[in-house]
From TrEMBL:
MF (Gene Ontology): oxidoreductase activity
Gene3D superfamilies, sorted: Leucine-rich Repeat Variant
InterPro entries with a match to the protein in the record: ARM-like (IPR011989), ARM-type_fold (IPR016024), Armadillo (IPR000225), PBS_lyase_HEAT (IPR004155)
Stored PANTHER family: DEOXYHYPUSINE HYDROXYLASE, PBS LYASE HEAT-LIKE PROTEIN
Superkingdom of the organism of origin: Bacteria
UniProt protein name: HEAT repeat
Organism the protein comes from: Geodermatophilus pulveris
């Protein structure tokens, strides 16, 4: 027993020493980390003081001479600012060489560097680099192409709309959602170009242009949208986009074309879009077509007509009541809609 006690005591002592060493090491790490954090906070406070001086006094000499850590502070603040403050930050980034370094990185071999450079130039509203950002819409990396599209939207130059729309149909097409958000970011200045695209663009560009002019409520686009809606040679998705845009714009001039499409198209998704548009526009002149649509074999179309008639309010209710009184299949469908609307908690069209 005594022969085993000595090694055990030694092992216990060694273990105790190791525990003490570990505790000291952990304490040292925590101390070092705390010092670094305090130093970083102090440094950031000093950098923020420079930024405040820049925004208050317009003196950017101290900002230009500041350490490189200031670049991240400026880039973080930039999206949060508008007007003169934003312009002051942009000017400071340009004078510090940040914009020039980003422009050089547009040709970098690494995709992440090209994407980061595009994002930075978009944030700094680099219109001087519009052509190079547009060229990146054909980059071999999808992430870079998306970054370039978002950057073009943030730059805000209406001339970017042509490259963005063209990127929908290149050998490496961009997702329509990414392009659509970028075009929306360009604002109403691009509406004339979008109206022209409704007439002359590719099917993908026409569909996206219809979506965007609809979101903007562009009344001047109504005629071109009606032409797309009623042109049976157009792809169905383009015609649906036109119907949805007309619903958003709300011009009663679209009521008759929408009613004709609802009755004659024989394409249930398009007919449903037409019915929904008639409901949103709210013109009682669309009620007869909606009433006829109640007996459409496609349930989605009949349900949309249900909802649209209810959306017409008293005028729709009067049409339904008249049809219900006449009986027949149409009268039965109309009575079912009236019954559904009179019972709280029931959903029309379900």
């Amino acid at each position: 027993m005594s022969s085993l006690a000595a090694p055990a005591a030694v092992a216990t002592a060694v273990l105790g020493v190791l525990v003490v060493v570990l505790l000291v090491a952990v304490a040292a790490v925590h101390t070092t980390r705390a010092r670094r954090l305090a130093a970083a906070q102090g440094s950031r406070a000093g950098l923020m003081a420079l930024v405040h001086d820049l925004l208050d006094d317009g003196d950017d000499e101290a900002v230009v001479a500041a350490p490189r850590d200031l670049d991240e502070v400026l880039l973080h603040l930039l999206p949060q600012l508008r007007g003169a403050d934003r312009e002051a930050i942009q000017t400071a980034l340009t004078r510090r060489g940040v914009v020039a370094r980003a422009a050089a990185d547009l040709d970098a071999r690494a995709a992440w560097r090209r994407g980061r450079a595009a994002t930075l130039l978009g944030s700094t509203a680099g219109r001087d680099h519009l052509a190079r950002l547009t060229a990146l819409l054909a980059d071999r990396s999808l992430e870079v192409r998306c970054a370039a599209a978002r950057a073009l939207g943030r730059v805000g130059d209406p001339a970017a709309v042509h490259g963005l729309l063209a990127s929908l149909t290149t050998a490496r097409p961009l997702p329509a959602g990414v392009v659509g958000m970028a075009v929306l970011d360009l604002g109403t200045a691009v509406l004339p170009a979008l109206r022209a695209t409704l007439v002359t663009g590719s099917p993908a560009a026409r569909a996206l242009s219809a979506d965007v002019v609809g979101v903007h409520g562009d009344l001047a686009a109504t005629s071109a949208l009606v032409d797309l809606l009623t042109d049976a040679r157009q792809p169905e998705d383009v015609r649906r986009a036109a119907a949805t845009a007309l619903a958003r714009i709300g011009d009663p001039a679209a009521t008759d074309p929408l009613a004709r499409v609802l009755l004659d198209a024989a394409l249930p998704p398009l007919q449903r879009a037409a019915a929904e548009a008639l409901g949103r526009i709210g013109d009682p002149a669309g009620a007869p077509a909606l009433l006829a649509g109640l007996t459409c074999p496609a349930r989605e179309v009949a349900a949309a007509c249900d909802d649209a008639l209810v959306a017409l309010g008293p005028e729709g209710a009067a049409v339904l009541a008249d049809a219900a009184g006449r009986g027949g299949p149409l009268g039965t469908a109309a009575a079912a809609t009236l019954d559904a609307t009179s019972q709280p908690g029931r959903l029309v069209g379900v």
